[in-house]
Amino acid sequence: MKTLFKGGRLLLLVAGALLVGGCGSPPVIRSGQALSYQGLQKTGERGMGITPNAAHHGQYVQVLVKPIQITSAVARDTSPEVSLEVDRALQQRLEAELSRHFMLSPRANGSNTLVVRVRVMRIAEAWPVINALATPLLGPVKNGGLSIEVEALDARTGRQEALLLLADDAGFFDILDSYQRAAHAKALAQEFATEAATFLAPLGHARR
């Protein structure tokens, strides 16, 4: 009985530390690979961005979404299965959302093509075992998170048209996804892709 009591106390201490450490939104992370970060401003509740120049609105007919780039540091600290799920979720959702505003292109050609690069700067995996043990007492305590950088460039000139940095962690009440390592990061990937497409939409030529 004493062993169980001590084990319960230890779990509470670990869970409490995780809860305190997880409070607040994570900061956005710069890759250092974007053409420029000058002019970054707060964008929405969980990001910073350089908004598309109004003079270039409606200029692009086509868009090429480059393969998602997961940085070496992220790949080193994340299981391959989780990295792959996040990669697929970002690529598929971003292309689907951008196709509402642009024609998808398999290559960067012509002066009316926008190239979009996505860099994954952080993937935080949920801890299913810890969450399962802590849920009866405190609820899930170690949820997943994601940070990305989205850069849009003119295919012909290489000029930067927009930049968006997004970062967030799953909330305390995202309980249903707390028992799968990739679920929170994957859900955030889909949300971020939709947010990025909306951010870049003004650059697209109105489709008929």
From TrEMBL:
InterPro entries: DUF3313 (IPR021747). This is DUF3313 domain-containing protein. It comes from the Bacteria. It comes from Pseudomonas sessilinigenes.
